[in-house]
Write a structure and sequence with these properties.
By secondary structure, the chain is an alpha/beta fold. The protein has helices at 41-54, 70-77, 101-114, 125-157, 170-177, 184-214, 221-227, 235-245, 254-260, 285-295, 306-314, 317-339, 344-367, and strands at 7-12, 17-24, 31-38, 58-63, 81-85, 265-267, 276-279. It folds into three domains: 7-114, Nucleotidyltransferase, domain 5; 125-217; 221-367, no CATH class. It is 53% helix and 11% strand. The strands form two sheets. It has a five-stranded mixed sheet, sandwiched between helices. The chain has a two-stranded antiparallel sheet with strand order 6-7. Strand 6 and strand 7 (276-279) form a beta hairpin. The chain starts with 6 loop residues before the first strand and ends in a 7-residue tail after the last helix. The model has no long low-confidence stretch (mean pLDDT 92).
């Protein structure tokens, strides 16, 4: 490998050790495995400085995973380009059935040189911290749902299903507290389950309060406030969406955002035949799930409720116009799809896809200078 050539370096990361491969520029340039180094800042810095002495330009890459973005930030701080690669978009040979750290590093080095890798967006440390907080809240919500299901399953097994329709409201909680079971052991089990439900509920409350306290100092605070003018989106939903998506202006068009969310139709067309299927679900699962949850509010006719008036009034005129246009269009879209015989979940998914376009428009309006009024 020539000492004056550009080098493309791939690291196959793991908890303790990183496998390193290097490719020289040019289609026929040498691709060589350098071995493994400790997954520590000291070892990484030593490798980067060593390669920088031998090559005029060095570009690094590694696969996004549980090791996070610390490696990326260290390499960037040393003045070199680094790419965090989307794992699902790494080209794979269909017949390749052997996977090792060495082979993965060599393959990524070749693909980095060829320009076949797709980078993920890397948040700044504070944005990542806000995202960790919103993800902790999402995990708490899933935990609460599981614990509630355990209570309902126990009572159903004992022949005491709840006769009402709406669960976990005041009426349901009063009904749960009045349950009389035949055996002391079952009473203890039910009380422990209900205690776990109360603990999970309190945990969600603490996390939501922490999110509200964190938003004012966040770089996307103005965008989060503007998104609250849209129906179905409160501060928690807006923060959760932006924590996963990041800066909305990094998408050149609403279609790019929809594709990133995995909400565009899958397609398998050949020749004159055009065949489209369900949405790809290839994007960010957490953002897509939150978007669909917000879209359910558009089943109802357009209106601004009493709780929403202050949030809409705080938004700039451009954002208010976008929010009202979203209400009228998406409510009509839902009704049209239902009249056409589409199931509820299909109609809501279509509404959520279009809601992403309005979210992108709000982000663009905020970036162009429209900020919430005091």
């Amino acid at each position: 490998m020539e000492k004056d050539s550009t080098a493309y370096v791939a690291l196959d990361t793991s908890k303790l050790r990183n496998a390193v491969a290097i490719a020289a520029e040019g289609r026929d340039g040498e691709v060589r495995y350098l071995g493994e180094i400790d997954n520590t800042p000291t070892a990484t810095g030593k490798l980067v400085r060593k390669l920088a002495k031998r090559h005029p330009a060095v570009t690094f890459c590694y696969e996004a995973g549980p090791t996070g973005y610390g490696l990326y930030r260290q390499i960037k701080s040393l003045g070199h380009d680094c790419m965090v690669v989307a794992p699902s978009l790494i080209p794979q040979k269909p017949g390749d059935r052997v996977k090792t750290n060495r082979r993965d590093a060599l393959s990524m080095a070749r693909q980095l040189r060829a320009g076949d890798l797709t980078a993920v967006w890397v948040p700044d440390p504070h944005h990542e911290a806000v995202r960790d907080l919103t993800r902790a809240r999402g995990a708490a919500v899933r935990d609460l749902r599981s614990k509630r299901q355990q209570v309902s399953a126990l009572l159903l097994r004992l022949g005491q299903p709840y006769p009402g329709k709406t669960t976990w409201g005041k009426t349901h909680l009063a009904w749960l507290s009045s349950r009389k079971l035949d055996h002391r052991e079952q009473c203890i089990a039910l009380e422990e389950m209900l205690h776990a439900v109360r603990q999970a509920t309190d945990r969600i409350g603490r996390l939501e309060q922490a999110i509200r306290a964190a938003v004012p100092d966040w770089s996307l605070a103005s965008t989060a406030s503007a998104l609250m003018a849209l129906r179905g989106i409160d501060l928690i939903a807006a923060t959760s969406l932006l924590a996963e998506i990041g800066d909305l202006t990094r998408f050149a068009s609403p279609r790019e955002l929809m594709a990133w969310l995995g909400m565009v139709p899958s397609e398998h067309s050949t020749g004159p035949r055009v065949r489209r299927g369900a949405i790809t679900k290839a994007g960010n699962r957490r953002a897509r799930s939150m978007l669909v949850e917000c879209a359910w509010s558009y089943r109802h006719p357009p209106r601004v409720g009493a709780d929403k008036l202050a949030k809409v009034a705080a938004a700039p005129p451009a954002v208010r116009d976008i929010a009202w246009k979203a209400q009228t269009r998406l409510s009509a879209r839902y009704r049209a799809l239902r009249r056409a015989g589409k199931p509820d979940n299909v109609a809501i998914t279509a509404v959520a896809r279009e809601l992403a376009a309005f979210i992108w428009s709000v982000g663009l309006a905020v970036a162009s200078g429209a900020t919430p009024q005091a």
